Amino acid sequence: MKYKLIKGIFSKKGDRIRRMKNGKDQKIRIRIRTEDIMLAPSIIVLIAVSIFPTIYLLYATFFNYMGSVDKPVYIGLENWIKIFKDMEVFNSWKVTLIYAFVSLTLETIIGVGIAVLLYTIPKARNIFLTLWMLPIFVAPIVTGLLGRFMLNSSYGLYAYLLNLIGIKRDLLGSTGSALLCVILMDVWEWTPLITIVVLAGLEAMPTAPLESAEVEGATYLQKVWYVMLPLASRSISVALLIRAMDVMRFFDAIFMSTAGGPADTTKIIGLRLYEVAFRFGDIGYAAVIGISMLIVTTLLGRIFVKLWYSGGGEYSA
Amino acid sequence: MNKKRIIVWFTIMSLIISVVMIGYITSNGNLPKVEASQSKGEKIGPFKPVSGLPPITGPANFNWRQYAGVTLNFISENTPPSSALAANIKEFEKATGIKVNIQQMDLGSLVQKVTLDFVAKSGRFQVIYADPYQVLAPHYQHFVDLNKFNKDPNLPHVPGGLSDFIPSQLQACGYMGNTSKLYALPYDCPTMVLAYRKDIIAKIKNDFIKEKGFDPTPGPNMTWEQYYEVAKYINEHAKELGVKYGTGHQAKQYDSLMCDFSNILAAWGGDYFEKKDLGYIGSSNPGKCIINSKQGIEAAKFYKKLLDIAHPGSKSWDWNGLAEAFAAGEIALAPEWHEFASMFENPQKSKVVGKVGWSVLPKGPVRSANIYGGTGVGINAHASEKEQKAAWLFLIWATSPQSQLMILQSPVGGETPTRKSVYNYPTVKKAMEDPTSPEAKKMPNLIAMKATLQAWEKENVYMRPKIPQWTQVDTIVFTELSKMLAGVKTPEQAMNDIKRAVDVVTKQNK
User: A265–B328: do the CB atoms touch at under 8 Å?
Assistant: First the structure.
């Protein structure tokens, strides 16, 4: 029998009652199932470590903490209005978008290319893959230090090599090259992640379409373009999703290598947030910047998830 | 013998005995006079005293091990004195039974961690490296008033007394707003002076004098305009001189850029705020920002001009990067913190050992200005009473003349002392007087000390403003300066933008 809840009525004992179509009321017993009990700890932890801080973050946006962190002053929507007028934050978003777009493009092209190459080499794939994967195991803060070391104009190897071909500028100290340098650091470290995800997709790919293409006399490039890449498109969008969300939070390597300079050319939004929160002590405004990052990251995630669902390369084993 | 003769004889004998005794005491190791710190009823503590320096003493019945078992966390910038203390911490731990964890990091991370600790009132770091500008000024309410311990008759007191510290450094590192409360004791004292290559200057001297008409040797009479000419001349003859550039600077978009620029700003007679002498005791109300004054803009123009001929690496170097480049022999002149002297004289780290001379920074139209960057150590007010008292014992030991001497001589670090008595110590005096002496080789930081002592003179030293909002002001200043150096803004625009942003920040915090 189907019940339609017409009106939530509670009896004196607190039981929920549903009124049926025929006008009679029926008690509904609220059952706590075993799975609810088992899920409860994780939900409690989630509320404690994720939901409560997010709500508190939202609450903090309405206060000015600069006078005293203990006694913040209520300022209404002032911090929210400020973010739309703040050219420094606007500039940081601009740098972040350039940084994200260029690094994701390079990482996708190189990562997918290497994945296809590794997929097609007949021998020693694991050795090459392990070597290619090594940068992932380096902490981002070490990547920044390494980049600074290699590009140091006094003793850096890259600086020395560039000097040999007549490039004498200090790469991390010049506005024209600093952003490119930190992008390349990101590409060096995270391209292997794209490779491993795409390679996993290629490995799971059915062999029949490839064999058919071979029978039809397709060249290697045609097989890659018309068979392998379409079939791996879902893995590519997953890899992009992970990296796109990660790139928004990128901080360590830039902090260690350029600290946002010169002239703010590498000050991505994460660095701006750090500066506002920990150097300016403006926790309320930093919370607004943090929420804006959350919104952008969520939107990006939604776009890539949509791409994933609409991906033409769906296949079944 | 009549009564009168007995009195005369007694007086004469007393005088002779006194003279002999004073002669014996002062001739014993040629010890300097030090302020008597061992008052009545005081007993020397469990630390081996160094003759000639005020000893660490405590009340006669004081139990130095009463805080045994307490663990102290000392958060410090990764500076030479902390490395030297860490290498010798067993001496303190053995004497007191107090365990000390010394955590070293860059200044930015330290400021962040200390701020969070104060906000949370956790007292996780009981002993704090209290940078006067970025830690003490904004958070002085979170520090213990050390007078409470120093005046307590049941506790040991500062060896040698507070008057043994260099007065201006005690003011800058110890107080905030007024001198009623003492928040920290001076711990280190880096000051910016000019490091230069003696060999390069000697090579160019004759030709340079013929061509330009003045001596290129840096000294108190050199002006910044002359410095520019020398740097440019070395650039033009770089290949034959074996260096890459004449001058190098710490102009990375960081605190170091503000420090480097402040030397020029003050030399041109400019400053950050209208209220004078903010650098010593400090103030919460600095008044309006005056960096865009005529002097400020002229200083900015000169700084831009100077950086245009400097080593291109300058824009990505902080003080460490600059020191590495100088030690690698890439530049001939560098305004640098004097504590890097030991690095330049270390054959494992430097190619310019024995070739480095030191001088006060050149003069601008108004004066020579050498920025002071010393720091104190203080106690976290949120630590427990027991931890605070244990931390007080640590402070007494760490800032004592004998520890300062140990730090100065340490092969791990090497930092110049904050104590007058150490500068009067015979071997230290000798090393300062003769940079080629074996004593100077043992304490290479003292090679730069003659110039540094000159830099500390009131007319030469520059103390940056000590205000609660300094961290924000500092960030605004170095960000705008970086834009100016990159050519994104003109000197006028950069100075006006700094003024606008700083005035907003100082008003917000009122």
Answer: no
Kindly report the CATH number assigned to the domain that includes residue A243.
1.10.3720.10
Q: Are A15 and A29 in contact (CB under 8 A)?
A: yes
Give domain status of residue A172, yes or no: yes
Q: Is residue A46 in a domain?
A: no
**Claim to verify: residue A121 and residue A250 sit in the same structural domain:** yes
Count of other CB atoms within 10 angstroms of residue B60: 9
Helix, strand, or coil (residue B103): strand
**Which has more confidence, A192 or A68?**
A192
Q: Cα B116–A245–A195 angle (5° rounding)? A: 125
pLDDT of residue A231 exceeding 60, the answer is yes
Nearest to A120 by CA among A9, A31, A234, A223: A223
Rounded mean pLDDT of B373-380?
A: 96
Whole-number pLDDT of residue B89: 95
Query: Does A66 score more than 70 pLDDT?
Result: yes
Q: Do B471 and A69 count as a contact with CB atoms less than 8 A apart?
A: no
The answer to whether the CB atoms of B252 and A259 lie below 8 A apart is yes
pLDDT digits (tens, 9 = 90+) for B168-226: 999 999 999 999 999 999 999 999 999 999 999 999 999 999 999 999 999 999 999 99
What phi and psi values does residue B8 have, to the nearest 5 degrees? -60, -50
Residue A118 has pLDDT above 80, yes or no: yes
- Does A248 lie in the same domain as A106? yes
Same domain, residue pair A4 and A87: no
The answer on A5 and A99 residing in a single domain is no
Residues A156 and A26 in one domain: no
ipTM of the modeled complex: 0.77
**Which residues on adjacent β-strands are paired with residue B143?**
B380
Residue A229 in contact with residue A213, Cβ under 8 Å?
Answer: no
Q: Which of A154, A168, A260 sits opposite B253 (nearest CB)?
A: A260
The answer to whether residue A153 sits within a structural domain is yes
**Together in a domain, A3 and A131:** no
DSSP string, B167-228: HHHHHHHH-BSBSSS--EEEEE--BEEEEEEHHHHHHHHHHHHHHHSS--S-STT-BHHHHH
**Predicted pLDDT of residue B5:** 65
Give me the residues paired with residue B72 across strands. B100
What is the H or E stretch that residue B35 is in?
Answer: none
Per-residue model confidence (pLDDT) at position A278:
84
CA-based nearest distance B129→chain A, Å = 17
* Candidate from B112, B312, B321 with C-beta closest to A169: B312
The closest alpha carbon to B448, from B334, B322, B286, belongs to B334
Minimal Cβ distance to B509: which of A67, A264, A278? A67
Q: H or E segment at B379?
A: strand B375-379
* Structure token pair of residue B495: 């100075």
User: What distance in Å separates the CA atoms of residue B122 and residue B158, rounded to the nearest whole number?
Assistant: 27
Number of domains chain A is built from: 2
How far apart (Å, rounded) are the C-alpha atoms in residues A81 and A89? 12
**CA dist A97 to A91, A266, A300, Å?**
10, 11, 12
* A250 and A131 part of one domain: yes
How confident is the model at residue B36, as a pLDDT?
40
Using an 8 Å Cβ cutoff, are B416 and B443 in contact? no
**How many contacts, defined by CB atoms under 8 Å, are there between A and B?**
95
Give pLDDT, residue A316: 43
Q: Are residues A297 and A214 in the same domain?
A: yes
Rounded Cα distance, B214 and B218, in Å: 11
The residue range of the domain holding A7 is 1-32
**Radius of gyration over every alpha carbon of chain A, rounded to an integer in angstroms:** 27
Identify residue A132 by its one-letter amino acid code.
W
What average pLDDT does chain A have?
Answer: 86
The encoded tokens of residue A107 equal 């990482």
| Stated pTM of the model | 0.83
Is residue A76 one of the residues assigned to a domain? no
